[in-house]
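Quick start: load a record and inspect it. Here is Dolichol-phosphate mannosyltransferase:
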Amino acid sequence: MPASITRPRLSIVAPCHNEEEGLDLFCRRVAAAAAEACCDAYEIILVDDGSTDGTWEKISALSRDHEAILGVRLLRNHGHQLAATAGLATARGERVLLIDADLQDPPELLLMMMAIMDRGADVVYGQRQRRQGETWFKLTSASAFYRLLSRLSSVAIPRDTGDFRLMNRRVVDILLSMPERERFIRGMVSWIGGKQVALPYERDPRYAGETKYSLRKMVSFALDAITSFSTVPLRVATWLGLITAMVALALLVFTLASWLIGHTVTGWASLMAAITTFSAIQLIGLGVIGEYLGRLVQEHKGRPMFMVEAIIRHGDLAELPVDFASLPPQAKREAMDAATVDKTAQRKQSGRSA
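Running the structure step on this input writes:
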């Protein structure tokens, strides 16, 4: 690593999708918390996940005004988990805070997280005690999801937690080396292990804009989480098949016995009910198998997890390798270092020329 490169002690990664209204306040609060936690040795990485409003223009303006802010623009909307992964891949800090840009997770908790990590923690994650500003349906469905996941998963995933967490460099590098594309970051971090400490807090209401998680996205996210960390649904399908086979065998014996003693059983309704029940169970089993098979197909394709259109620092576009998304973690940091040095040298040269 060149001697001129000083990597930050802390990187703060925030995925953004149509967050134009709240970015100014978010950056002010995050910068104040980071400055208190580690002076000026930090960077703030804002990832524009295919926004359709003025989010990228706002990020570009903030990067010109604040030296610590770096903007990453994805080529299209990849979803929250992949946008977060793109930000983590860009981060160069020895510690990385993952936080949403909607200000529901208070940035001021960073100081406490840093203190806990100073005492030996590998990960410090926020655990929600209360969730203000959310509907009864959202609270109930989220609670049911976390409890179902904890029962199904072979990995102990803490309940009532999101992606709001501080991780050390080792955990981030392991996380980035994991190749799956259907990502459930909070579960993947739990799978890594190490010393992981909960920090209870109360979640605030969204500062501006609307939630980006529709019911369809929530269901898709839940399926990704369950299929990524549990094979129990496959076993349930197997058991349903076995139970159905035993019931069908019992019905066959009953039918043969009735025929032998001369009591033929007729009844269109009962026949249709049996056919419908067995067909439904078979379709459920096929659907579960299809979910896992579909994910295997997507993984086998080997497509990049995300596509970066532009990275901006100090108002300048950084030039990165075309295959940046597929580089290993160390190579990503070296590419970011080289881009930063090149732009710094260009600014100095233009200043001398002027």
